[in-house]
Amino acid sequence: MSDHPSTYTPKSGIEKWLDARLPILRLAYDSFVDYPTPKNLNYWWTFGGILSLCLGIQIISGIVLAMHYVPHIDHAFDSLERIRRDVNGGWLIQFVHSNGASMFFFAVYIHMFRGLYYGSYKAPREVLWLLGCVIYFLMIATAFMGYVLPWGQMSYYGAVVITNLIGAIPLVGPSILTWLQGGFSVDQATLNRFFSLHYLLPFVIAGVVVLHVWALHVVGQNNPTGVEIKSKEDTVPFTPYATVKDAAAMILFLMLFSVFVFFMPDALGHADNYVKANPLQTPAHIVPEWYMLPFYAILRAIPDKLIGVIAMFAAIAVIFALPWLDTSKVKSMRYRPVMRWFFVLFVITCCLLGWCGGQLPEDLVFSLGTDDHGNAIGLKVVLLSQILTAYYFAFFLIIMPWIGLKEEPLPVPASISEAVLANHAKH
Q1: Is 424 annotated as a binding residue?
Q2: Does the annotation flag 285 for ligand binding?
Q3: What sequence ranges are listed for the domain Cytochrome b/b6 C-terminal region profile (predicted)?
Q4: What's the pLDDT score for residue 344?
Q5: Where are the beta strands (DSSP E) in 267-389?
């Protein structure tokens, strides 16, 4: 927390000189060494550090790739092949960067679900949550623009579909569409714009991450009990306790990352994106990357184009309003048995929406036989998507406010130390 007294003591003459003029070493020590951390944090809290690692990997690998990438519609696809084949270590950098995007989103989804489960969005952490939502939105924008850069079939038609959806917005849509495309269609100007923005936005994300960490250190970390720190006995120093735990989780995460990079680097990509973009040959099925599939399923679940676009963006916007939608005074769902089940259903809903986004709308989830004309009948993907979309919005707009008022929570510990001692007593 911001009000904990500094214990940093400059030792050398250089440290004393610098501390009197720019106390950056004191700031680092107070923020990452002696910072009071709740003693009951579990491994779900390690994904904040993992996300910082992912951002660093993406920025560094992206800078190296930008040195060799050619943002031209005639050469972009071939330049990636040259990076893989002819640039020293280029294959490794390219695989790290492409798979790093998926690892980044994998970690951020776990981080967000953890925050949702333990109530990390509640007072006094509203601004902390909002900054995290801004980071997530910027990640989506950055990933979408990066998906276009390989200039394969899926890259090109993904850009066509998404930019045209933006054009459906009344009044301002056509102007934004023209600005994004740089003309009347996806072409060279579009690729130039997307490359510039894809290069710029990670540094914007890094800036918002600094604000996110700053806000975290002002209000302090949440914890599994949802009880605020009441005394020094509730905390331990950030180093070595939290840093060792974060380091162990990062090692395991990097092992998973390495499996994809070295053994199946193209497993998370679409096969059609390894075919050079051809405006005259439309792929049979246009899909975004896996981490955007839930929102794509919401878009396709609604027949009306404009309402579908609104619903897709509303699915992201509603997350921003979460601190004011939850009416419960208890933060952690550990003590909210009813809400916990709705949360489990919500996680399943998000996973199923992702699966639906990768299927054709007319496909059957399961068949109930055939009608008199021989046509297959059953629950179709589009109908399942509509049901899941309804629950997605109902969770935030109906279930969360209503359950918060009606649910009788379990007894909450008086302090973090009490919860820790009670847990040790059970074992």
Answers
A1: no
A2: no
A3: 228-414
A4: 98
A5: 364-370, 376-380
Q: Does the pLDDT of residue 181 top 70, yes or no?
A: yes
User: Is 212 labeled as ligand-binding?
Assistant: yes
**Within 10 A of 379 (CB to CB), how many other CB atoms are there?**
13
Domains of the chain by start residue, with CATH: 1-34 (no CATH), 38-275 (1.20.810.10)
Q: Across all residues in the chain, what is the average pLDDT? A: 93
Bridge partners of residue 37, in order along the sequence: 236
217 is an annotated ligand-binding site residue: yes
Instruction: Give the largest CA-CA distance in the chain.
Output: 90
Q: How many CA atoms lie within 13 A of 131 on its CB side?
A: 18
Distance between CA atoms of 315 and 294, rounded to whole angstroms? 9
According to the annotation, is 427 in a ligand binding site? no
Contact 83, 297 (CB under 8 A): no
Q: Crossing angle of helices 381-394/293-301, nearest 10°?
A: 100
Residue 367 has pLDDT above 90, yes or no: no
- Non-local CB neighbours of 236 within 8 Å, separated by 6+ positions: 36, 37, 39, 242
Three-state DSSP class for 370? strand
pLDDT tens digits, residue range 211-239? 999 999 999 999 999 999 999 999 999 99
With a cut of 70, say whether residue 426 has pLDDT above it. Answer: no
